[in-house]
């Protein structure tokens, strides 16, 4: 198929998707998308927060407003999302950004309640394209106790997460942000260092270990690297682990 024809078909498909999406929009969201003159405020969309969060333009609007919103405005937005709609928006292409803003700009109580809705779902969220971003943001903003809950939910599947395109970012963030004594899953790396070192995502996780964990945690891992250093130096991913030894 020629490039011009492919582009034409893609353009037609995008228009059909836009038309289908428009058919399900509320009148308020349609007005918001079309009215470029009115100065919109968060109070104007109350009752429609979830719908706006799932819309590209509505999501951007909420994100921007949350950065300077009053406590009352933040609470109003929070109440429409948590707990009933939080998991839905966490995994949404546009909604996840709104949830991230709640973790950044919400009160500590709001962050705690929002994180509570994620408990029991940390593994599937970590493996999901948008959910993994929210899990990372949550790790940065919740209490050490809630961080521990996240860690424990991933303990049994940590190697799966390490080798996953999305999950590895969550493991890296946990290593960067959580106290080492709470990271029981690091023990799972022992006996798997060569395999992880030669994996495109595993090598990144090991690098974070060497950068952020004390020697008592990294020494067993480094000992394994030493044993296969020659092979790792010649591997496109393993050479980074070898470099850490030199540093």
Topology of this structure?
Blueprint: H1 3-23, H2 27-34, H3 49-53, H4 56-66, H5 71-81, H6 86-90, H7 95-105, H8 108-118, H9 122-126, H10 131-141, H11 144-154, H12 158-162, H13 167-177, H14 193-197, H15 202-212, H16 215-227, H17 229-233, H18 238-246
Helix pairs in contact: 4-7, 7-10, 10-13, 13-15, 15-18
Your description of this structure?
- It contains 18 helices and no strands.
- It has 247 residues and is an all-alpha fold.
- 68% of the residues lie in helices and 0% in strands.
- The protein is elongated, with a radius of gyration of 22 Å.
- It has helices at residues 3-23, 27-34, 49-53, 56-66, 71-81, 86-90, 95-105, 108-118, 122-126, 131-141, 144-154, 158-162, 167-177, 193-197, 202-212, 215-227, 229-233, 238-246.
- The model has no long low-confidence stretch (mean pLDDT 90).
- It has 2 domains: 18-118; 157-247, no CATH class.
Cα distance spanning the termini: 51 Å
The total of beta strands comes to 0
User: From the helix content, strand content and strand pairing, which structural class follows?
Assistant: mainly alpha
- The quaternary structure here is single chain
User: Strand-residue fraction?
Assistant: under 5%
- Largest sheet geometry: none
List unreliable stretches of 5+ residues.
none
Mean pLDDT: 90
Rg, Å, rounded? 22 Å
Secondary structure tally, helices: 18
- In N-to-C order, the SSE pattern is HHHHHHHHHHHHHHHHHH
Helix content: 55-70%
List the domain count as a whole number.
2
Shape: elongated
């Amino acid at each position: 198929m020629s490039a011009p024809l492919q582009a034409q078909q893609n353009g037609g498909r995008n228009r059909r998707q836009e038309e289908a999406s428009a058919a399900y929009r509320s009148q308020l969201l349609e007005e918001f998308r079309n009215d470029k003159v009115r100065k919109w405020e968060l109070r104007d969309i109350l009752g429609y927060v979830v719908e706006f969060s799932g819309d590209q333009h509505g999501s951007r609007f909420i994100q921007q407003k949350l950065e300077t919103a009053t406590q009352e405005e933040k609470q109003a937005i929070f109440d429409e999302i948590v707990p009933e709609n939080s998991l839905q928006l966490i995994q949404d292409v546009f909604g996840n950004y709104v949830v991230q803003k709640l973790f950044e700009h919400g009160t500590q109580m709001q962050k705690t309640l929002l994180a509570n809705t994620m408990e029991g779902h940390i593994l599937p969220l970590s493996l999901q394209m948008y959910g993994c971003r929210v899990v990372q943001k949550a790790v940065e903003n919740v209490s050490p106790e809630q961080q521990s809950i996240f860690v424990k939910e991933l303990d049994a599947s940590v190697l799966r997460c390490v080798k996953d395109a999305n999950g590895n970012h969550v493991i890296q963030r946990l290593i960067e942000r959580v106290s080492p004594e709470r990271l029981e899953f690091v023990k799972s790396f022992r006996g798997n260092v060569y395999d992880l070192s030669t994996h495109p995502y595993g090598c990144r996780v090991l690098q974070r270990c060497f950068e952020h964990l004390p020697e008592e945690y990294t020494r067993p891992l480094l000992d394994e690297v030493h044993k296969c250093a020659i092979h790792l130096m010649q591997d496109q991913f393993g050479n980074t682990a070898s470099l850490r030894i030199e540093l």
